Amino acid sequence: MRANPWSLGVAAVVAAFALATLAFWIPADIESGVVETFRRRTTIGDALAPTVVTVCMLAVAGLFAATELLRPRRESAPPDRQSLIFVVRVAAAIALGLALMVYTGPLTVDAINAAGGEIGSYRQLRDTFPYKYLGYLIGGTVMVGGIVAVVEQRLTRSAAAAAVLATFILMAMYDLPFDDILLPPNGDQ
Amino acid sequence: MGILDHVWLGVVAVFTEAPIASVFGLPISITVVMVVLGFLGGIVVGAAPGLGGPFAMAISLPILITIFGFNPDALLPVLGFMIGIMKGATVGGAVPAILFNTPGTPDSLMTTLDGFPMTKKGEAGKALRVAHFSSASGDTFSDLVLFTCAPFLAIAVEAYLDFPEKAALIVLSLAFISAVVGDSVWKGLLSALFGMFFAYIGTGEDNHPRLSFGSDALASGLPLIGVVLGVLILGEVFKALEDMWREKRATDAIAAPPESGDNRLRLRDIRRIAPFVGLSAFIGTMIGALPGIGSTLAATLGYATGRKLHKGDVPFGEGTPEGVAATEAANSAVSGANLIPVLSLGIPGNVAAVFIILATETISGFNPGPAVFRLVPDQINSEMVIAFGLFTAMVFANLLNWTIGGVFMRSMGVMVRIPKQRLLPIVLLLTLTAIYVQRPEMLAIYIALFFGFVGYLMRKLNFSVLPFVIGFILANNLEEAVRQAFSATGSDPWFLLSSPISIAFMLLAALVVVFFSRGSGKPSRR
Amino acid sequence: MTFKPLRIISAAAAATAALAIAASPSVAEWKPSGPINLMIAFRAGGGADTQARLMAASLEKGKGWKIIPQNVTGKGGAVMARKLKSQPNDGLTIGIAVTETFGYNILASKKAGYSVSDFTYITTTAGSQMGIVAKTSRGWKSIHDLVEAAKGGAKIKFGAMSPKLADLAYTVEQKFGIKLNTVMFKGGRGVLNAITAGDVDAGWVAGIQGKGVRSGDLVNLLSGETGRLKVSPDAPTLNELGIPYDAGAKFVIVAPKGIPADARKGLADAIGSILKDKSTKAAQFVTRAFGGPLLISGAALDKLVADGIASSKQLMEATQ
Hints:
The complex is a heterotrimer of chains A (about 190), B (about 525) and C (about 325).
Chain A: H1 5-29, E1 35-38, E2 41-44, H2 48-70, H3 81-114, H4 122-125, H5 131-152, H6 157-175
Antiparallel strand pairs in A: 1-2
Helix pairs in contact in A: 1-2, 3-5, 5-6
Chain B: H1 3-16, E1 19-23, E2 26-29, H2 30-47, H3 53-68, H4 75-92, H5 94-100, H6 109-120, H7 124-160, H8 163-180, H9 185-199, H10 224-247, H11 267-289, H12 295-309, H13 321-345, H14 351-362, H15 382-410, H16 420-438, H17 442-460, H18 465-488, H19 500-517
Antiparallel strand pairs in B: 1-2
Chain C: H1 11-23, E1 36-40, H2 47-63, E2 67-71, H3 78-85, E3 93-98, H4 104-108, E4 119-127, E5 131-135, H5 143-151, E6 156-160, H6 163-176, E7 180-184, H7 187-197, E8 202-205, H8 210-215, E9 218-223, E10 250-256, H9 261-276, H10 281-290, H11 298-318
Parallel strand pairs in C: 1-2, 1-3, 6-7, 6-8
Antiparallel strand pairs in C: 3-10, 4-10, 5-8, 5-9
Helix pairs in contact in C: 2-9, 2-10
């Protein structure tokens, strides 16, 4: 049996990551060294722990590759093209849901203000009914409904209803009983 | 104040503090209510498709903290609820495994081997009763060991462990968990090392947050709850969704065959399974008490040992009650004993323990470590009282398990009919909301989703996620212990080898890795 | 956090709140135009965090404001400071940290990412009761016994929780010509645990030692404040030893620079009034944990911050 290409690939990626981290990332992005001597006192610097961990990664990746070459084992279900399609579709559903979650509220408020509503900024309204719920309800529904639609490979009315209902229940569960909690995206405003 | 005074105060704290109602003039404390709710909720969640104790604990922790706050008063109700879930989900987890051959957690994987064949033979009722009896027995044994041994063990630990030994012990635990969980030592180690590496981003003592690319977003480190929930929960959600997407199969296709014959648990059944229950309970407890080893190994070992011992007519794997008993007793016995290393060292061994640690990190007034069981002359050690309160809650949950657990569990077969592809996206939104509520910025959600993808990839490539999570949690403790050991010994570069105990721990860590990497001869899972 | 099981969300609730505000006597008083984010630079669950959360709850109860607390921890408050400075300066985002964050910590860092002038300082809330603490069973009565032990050749392990405190320990070493093995911990709780466990011999603790000192298990060897400690009036101060610094820290509420003057005053007055009102939970907690409120605001607070920078500069030069 030949060595599993996925295992060797993982080992190679890990080794490359470890080398790059040791050569560039750690020296550039850590202030102190592995060991620091400052005022006659020698202490351990911030670089020690990441360096040791990365060196270990490099060593383990090597040993992993070696065992795989000597004694190959079958991988149960490695990722394939299908996985990629699935990931892209689910990621699209999540991204669309999150985008709606973040922008629905502020855009609605801007629109009302532009139409002469004078209701103040979204920052001031982020804890005011109904503006505070807009993003979560619409974004959450689209996210849940979208993923269900991806998995079921069709969009049914019952799935859409379940998504609306579930988002509404989650919203009520967090927002009604607790006074000083902000639903997404209101904490960022 | 002696240990017994603390035991008594712990019991009193659980049953009388903050009463919220009274029945026949007896006050019902909030902790008691929370244990009951957690236990029943745990059974429901354990029986639900694709969910398990960790899901329930992950989702409820932020909610509980919002309700009870961060003060020490919150400890017993919150931890009581978590313990209830932990025990309920362990019992409930056997339901889908037995009825539908779908284990909710890896722990109940071995339960399917004999449980589902029993269902096919029309013995579902008996299988569920055997599972419940064995699970409750293993749990009882484990709790008794915890109650009697934890204080003495912790005191011994305290007497012998200084900074260098603590650092060496964490190294040993990480080596152990990487080597034992999953299908390859090297993969386990890589998993743990990556978990540690991520923990080092943004932390450290310099004013410049290390490895943060100068970004303020990473400056306070990756949020513990986002990373842990991402890898453990979201990763599992994505993987399960993909499996369903691939199958595209109608979910209500599986139906359990009707029961036939004698489905009651008779005294002779108990006599038959008793040796298996006893042996597995012992194995589970021993494994639980070692720092950093999970219940999955206990279940596997319990089943394997039972199979070697078994001489009945129906062999293991073809639907024998002894098989169900051996697995369930072992995986349930882990939970109690697992709190020994959690409370006395702060080192978690399985996912449930990870969430107990997470709770104590968030709420003040209880720091797992040797100080918990320290006796102070003429004073009450409030942490020890909490610890014994915790034990009391465990014993109370165990009593619930014996009394109402079985009936409630057998009524849960209906949970399996919830369509998983609808439930999991909701779990996703629920988890993201729970994370946001704890840390109100979208960045926390993005981080959790990123680690969800990491968890998904790890599952696809057969990397065990538990070493990753435990590596992430222990990495900064390890670094701190190492720094402190180094400073306290006056910058001795050989501090890790400064005492016989730390030398022994380091040698053992190396031995564990070498031993498990040779044959890879452990029972393969999956 | 508050838990209200039967909260009704509707315009009615908002209307009631509006009525309550309109009905209060001082209509001219500044009030926030929306909910206030409170960034807490301390770990959730500790004493400092509890103080901030109780203050938020008391402000909601007493003033009808809406406060949303959030922990932004790391690097002795620097992470919070960097985040806070780029927030809008409308008084709807404020932060709580210690004075050290806006003094010593800026100087000690190669690239702090924020400066003293990036903020408007609103008010202090309470001060520490910093002391060098040891177990009574160690047999030391004051700092001089520790010095004697060190001179006698004992290897002394010493706990500290910030670089400034490590520096101050070093000034003690310089003064007496001794050597301490300084071990760093995260927070005073960590130092205190290590002292009780015997992992270190002595160390800085900021106030939580009070209980143990009163019961006789612990002893304050030295006061790190400008004056003597409330629980240990016999322990000498750093100044009395001839070391011209102090280790005391004060909790301070800050906002991004340039918030409107009425918002600055309004916030300071509101926080001051709830901390002075002995019936509020915040005031009770501050009294129990930090020996009572300490309210410095306006120009006096600006001077305090400036003085802090000046003395930190001296300390850093002296320990270089």
